[in-house]
Design brief:
By secondary structure, this protein is of the alpha/beta class. About 55% of the residues lie in helices and about 15% in strands. It has 6 helices and 7 strands, in the order βααβαβααβαβββ. The protein has a 5-stranded parallel β-sheet. A two-stranded antiparallel sheet has the order 5-6. Helix 3 (about 40-65) crosses helix 5 (about 95-110) and helix 4 (about 75-90) crosses helix 5 (about 95-110).
Length: about 140
Amino acid sequence: MIIADTGFFFALASQRDRYHQAALLALEAIDEPLITTYPVITETCYLLLSTGGNFAQCNFLKNLAAGASEVFELRENHLVRMIELLENYADLPMDMADASLVVLAEHLGHGRILSSDRRDFNVYRWRNKNPFKNLLLNYL
């Protein structure tokens, strides 16, 4: 499974996004299911609603409902870990959606991600030492 971030989903939905073509190419080339978290879905919906209106938000949710990505269920112990991450990366600062993806990487045991957030996912470490591998960069 490949972790999907807000920037990837937004790039797919927005033809004006600078990563739109790379996101399309990545989606076409990658032969593994995508997985994300509800904080990422919420953040994506907010961005789509504010830039593309209700149609863009609903279209994104319809794609998710049709199985475009699995959704990882965060549990209470994950929230404790997310708080640790938010405190550790306060200087960036890290947001809740990104913290949820670090927790997801720790759960999956890998950091293969699709994200347009090049800076932060170059800094974040899952299990405090392992770097993320941003697969979207292969399609730029």
